[in-house]
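Recall that a protein's primary structure is simply its ordered list of amino acids. Everything else, from secondary elements to tertiary packing, is in principle encoded there. The following example makes that idea concrete.
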Amino acid sequence: MKSAWIILSALVAGMLLGIAIEVIAPAAGTASLPYVEPIGLLWLNALKMTIVPLVVALLITGITATADAARAGKLAARAVATFVGAIFLSGTMSLIMTPLLLKLFPLSTSAATALRNGLGGSVEAGPSPTFADFILKLIPTNPIATAAETDILPLIVFTTIFAFAITRLDPPQRATLSGLFKAIGDAMLIVIGWVLALAPIGVFALGYALAVKAGVAAFGGLVHYVLILMGIGVSCLILGLLLAWLVVGISLPRFIRAMVPTLAVAISTQSSLASLPAMLKSSEALGVDPKKADVVLPLAVALFRFTSPAMNLAVVVYVAWLFGVELTPWEMAVGLAVAMAAALSSVSLPGSISFVTSIAPIAVSMGVPVAPLGLLVAVETFPDIFRTLGNVVGDVAATKFAADGVEEPEPTGETP
């Protein structure tokens, strides 16, 4: 939480300095770019170098953990199925709502151009592949070469198949391979932690370069981005409440009353994990058997992030819109699949780390520039509040739905 505010402060400081220099001495600002901007780009490259190994490790550990959870009993299996269905709905909602919000509340042409130029300029669109080309590209002939070329989509297809194959191994072999990839993922998270420790320096340099290139209009562009993301966050909250009412069968006044303490904790901590004790009390207030809640809620905190597909896809769709990248229906479908996989495999990571590890694979799979994420992570503080609020609403509603569908309480202690 504190680090997020430090990163945001570094961005604001860098942009204010860049604007001041550009106003007072434009020549000095332009002359300083070759010295300052490479610092930010170097930090961004360090962040990007972790994407491929981390995606592979998290996807394998996420699938194996989900499969193990589903084997734990009827309650756990129903919970996992509920999680998958809910994140599919939230991701689909985002693919509809984000373009609609951008159409209803467009960014001015001057601000969009300034922000785009500051984040790396326009992107040349390659030839649009045919559907046959798209299908043929899904299966990599050489997974190692695919990883080396950062071709995320076929790499994810191979990794997913490999992960499901691991789940069919005998328990000792499954534990060995799962443990190996978990260790790789943990090591990469340590590396990302080191890189993010330098985020104030990197973001300051990127913010300075953005301001020198784009001027005051860059602030307007970032504010517009934050408001659009917050709009998707509000949409997630509304969707979660509607699902609690129409699917789970809880009246909205009763559900909101039970959730008030949990929502207060979620706002103050911006952490689903820290909200777990409050969620247990909210579930009990809604009539969930405590033995069932003890199984489903920890599982939800570990595997289920209701808002992640929606919010992560919104980031990618926004960047695509800003850079003029036309997204085809099947590219959106691929993005949704990758977003769902990322949501189930990102574990309970700090916000700035999960922002990078979850969104970068989606952007790469949809052919959207990744570089803007280095700056957008700095303003994630505000949308992250809605991520947490939507997640705790989804967790409690999913727990009630899963518990109501199983007659007998499951024994505790079986969750991963």
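The first helix runs from residue 2 to 24. The chain is about 80% helix and 0% strand.
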